[in-house]
Structures are given as C-alpha cells and as structure tokens.
Design brief:
69% of the residues lie in helices and 0% in strands. By secondary structure, the protein is an all-alpha fold. The protein has 2 domains: 80 residues, no CATH class; 135 residues, Leucine-rich Repeat Variant.
C-alpha cells in the first residue's frame, strides 16, 4: 500500500515538474554546462517550492532519485531527511552524479547536514570518479558555509585534502577544490590565514592546476569584501538575552 502511495506521489510530482518546465530553461542549463539528458527545464526556486509542499518523505525521495529525471533528483534534497541518510545511500547517489549541478545541490542542501558528512569528505576526496571527487569538496564548502557552530580544527585539517587534490586538472574537480579552499578561508581569522598560506603555496607551484586553484583562491581571499566578512565573523559579539542566544544561526546564503 505504501509503495502504491509513493508511486502515485512520484507520478504527480513528475507531472507537476513537466508543467513548470520550459525549453528556455533547458537551453540555459546547457549554457551552464549542466548535462542532463532527462530534464524538464524547471528553475531551482520552483523545485524548492514543490519540496516545501511535499514535505519530508524518505520513500518519496528514494523513488524520485530512481526516476532519473534531473529535477526529480534535485527535489530529493528538499524531501529527504539528512539525519536518516545512510552512508551507503550517500555513496550510491554520489556514484550516480552525472553533472555538477545535482552534485553541488545535494551537497549544499542535504548532505552537509548528514552525520556522515565529514567521513564522506575524507573518503570521496581521493576517489577517481570526477563528480564523486568534486562532491568531496562541494560538501566541504557547504559545511564550511553552513555549520557556523563547528570548531576551526577540522577545517584546518581539511586543508591537506585540498592541497592533495589541487593537482587534479579536471575542470569540475579543480573548481570544487577552489570553492572549498575559499569557503574554509572565510570562516575565521585563523582559518583565513591558514587558507591563504595554502593558496599562496599552490599559486607558486610548477603544476598548472595547482597554480589555477591557488590563484583563484588568493584573488578572492584577498578581496576587501572577504576581509570585511572575516573580520566581522571574528569580532566579539555583544551579550544577548537567553532567548536570543539560543536561536539557530546555521543558515547562510551561498
């Protein structure tokens, strides 16, 4: 009975996505190098709205993923439960990533809240598959951006993973590595200095990919806007009442 109900939800969701898709959006995907043979052409914001309507549903998330449609796979990030994701489920989806958008989207909206996130960052960082390896660094960037309560230590340790992967010349991997390095560097003054040391070392490398990653990170970390953000995050905060102090502050725009 539950399977029949889930199947019906999948049919309804796919029909809704098809109605909200367009050739214009499919053409835009191609311009951004999003390769998805089965796509309706639905903007992410519209997919998010559908996810809010559907609510959290683990069975539906699994069935949407198995449908193979680009938008359905994006939708899983909004209906799955990160706390209940298994390591095996994360591995399976990572193996089936076929474009950078689905990879980054699941890392940014789902995987980063999983209790397995740090283990997968470590494991995936040495994988050969292009989008699995990118996922390691998209996930690291996402955790760095979203988990404001985490201590600096694991992020400082992650710089060795970044340095080790920076020589990968594949476009989607090296861009993911740079994103992770820049995001780690923006967390605090301590991490800013450590990330900048790593970035400068890479920028001086004889390896072209390492130089690209290093220069990309040095350019952004050296900007006035980033320096202001890091200083603001590291400044002492004024005391606040108990109710406000307990409010959630983990979300931050990408």
């Amino acid at each position: 009975m539950a399977t029949a109900a889930t199947d019906a939800k999948v049919v309804d969701a796919l029909a809704w996505l098809e109605r909200h898709g367009s050739r214009r959006n499919r053409d835009a995907m191609a311009r951004y190098a999003i390769v998805a043979p089965r796509a309706f052409g639905v903007p992410v914001g519209v997919i998010r709205d559908l996810g809010k309507r559907l609510g959290q549903d683990r069975d539906l998330a699994a069935a949407l993923w198995d449908s193979g449609w680009y938008e359905a796979r994006m939708l899983t990030a909004f209906v799955d439960d990160p706390a209940r994701l298994t390591a095996a489920q994360m591995d399976r989806r990572a193996r089936e990533f076929d474009n950078w958008a689905v990879c980054d989207h699941l890392c940014f909206h789902l995987f980063d809240r999983s209790p397995h996130a740090w283990r997968k960052i470590e494991e995936w960082s040495t994988r050969r598959e292009e989008f699995v390896k990118r996922a390691a660094f998209a996930l690291l960037a996402s955790v760095a951006l979203h988990d404001r309560a985490a201590p600096d230590a694991p992020f400082k340790k992650s710089l060795r993973l970044i340095a080790r992967a920076a020589a990968d010349e594949r476009n989607f991997v090296k861009k993911g590595v740079s994103w992770a390095l820049r995001s780690v560097g923006e967390r605090s003054v301590l991490l800013y200095e450590a990330a900048l040391v790593t970035a400068r070392r890479l920028a001086a490398s004889a390896d072209a990919s390492e130089r690209w990653v290093g220069n990309d990170a040095v350019r952004q970390l050296g900007s006035a806007a980033v320096k202001r953000r890091v200083a603001a995050r590291s400044a002492p905060r004024p005391a606040r009442g108990p109710a406000k102090r307990s409010a959630a502050t983990r979300k931050q725009d990408r």
